[in-house]
Amino acid sequence: MSHTLPDLELSISRQPLFFGLVVLVNIGIRADSSQRDLTRSRAELNAVTYADHMKADIVRGIDITNLAKPLDIEKMKNTIKDICP
Question: Maximum Cα–Cα distance for the chain, whole Å?
Answer without folding.
Answer: 111
